[in-house]
Amino acid sequence: MKNIGFLSFGHWSDTAHSETRSAKDFLHQSIDLAVAAEELGVDGAYFRVHHFARQAGSPFPLLSAIGARTSKIEIGTGVIDMRYENPLYMAEDAGAADLISSGRLQLGISRGSPEQVIDGWRYFGFAPADGETDADMARQHAEVFLKVIEGDGFAQPNPRPMFANPPGLLRVEPHSPGLRERIWWGSGSNATGVWAAKLGMNLQSSTLKDDETGEPLHVQQRKQIEAYREAWKEAGHEREPRVSVSRSIFALTNDLDRAYFGRDRNSQDQVGMIDENTRAIFGRSYAAEPDELVRQLKEDEAIEAADTLLLTIPNQLGVEYNAHVLESILTHVAPELGWR
């Protein structure tokens, strides 16, 4: 059995072939798709976060709105770039979104990826300390965020406050109990997967990873998951961690599916430079008739190793078509693979 969610990259563009012409369209359609996905039995609605781009940039209003319109589906991110985040302000937003959804927030965070502008986090008021990198800064922000959402008091109260305080040091409010166990780290390497395990975060491994061995992506991810779980065990955490992988998977069940994604039948992993220093491997897309799709997915070692699968969706094709994409996987593919 697997948790199956969708992952939206949140694009919008005012072009002839887009059903999502504006930020307003994207936000309202995302809420509608999450409602439709819950009705279909999908387990999660997740969103990518990018800044200075025509994509989802500020996740917490959207997650809160989805939380208010739904009752069962998990809501989350994949991922929030911690280089841009004030961890205390983020803790307030996350606590509120989690309470609105009655504890359904599954928050994916990470050091981020190359963005639309050079050092965009500087415009948000953040800069690495001397001798540190932006990745160091992201991990420091993450560690502060994790500590704050545990709920312990740390701030000295004003002896003459406007309103009466509870006794002792104060914490960031609102606090949502249990949120700390629902934070995921988006890991692009084996080393950061091990680091996330030591800190007690769940693991998100996407369709992009540092190419560390030259093997197919799904094999490298399976090894990353194994290293993560071993580090988790060594750290002595009491609960079982969760692990997700994301994939582009399309069951070709009608002519429209074939017109959109039939060209992806022969998709393969690709290798490229994500920045001037990092060689990365990009995962293939899966697109085939259901029987063939089942055969191909049985060979994906990372999907087999993970407990959660996030299906990347073409959000600009509209709510109705994306609901069809999700329903096709749940109906024609998931039962054959034992996911349902």
From TrEMBL:
Q: Please provide the record's keywords in A-Z order.
A: Oxidoreductase
Provide one Gene Ontology cellular component.
cytosol
Top-level taxon in the UniProt lineage: Bacteria
Can you provide one Gene Ontology molecular function annotated for this UniProt record? oxidoreductase activity, acting on paired donors, with incorporation or reduction of molecular oxygen
Q: Locate the Luciferase-like domain: which residues?
A: 9-251
**Entry's InterPro entries?**
Bact_Lucif_Oxidored (IPR050766), Luciferase-like_dom (IPR011251), Luciferase-like_sf (IPR036661)
Key word DNA repair present: no
Stated EC number for the protein is 1.-.-.-
**Which PANTHER family does the UniProt record give?**
BLL6902 PROTEIN, LUCIFERASE-LIKE MONOOXYGENASE
Give the protein's recorded name. Answer: LLM class flavin-dependent oxidoreductase
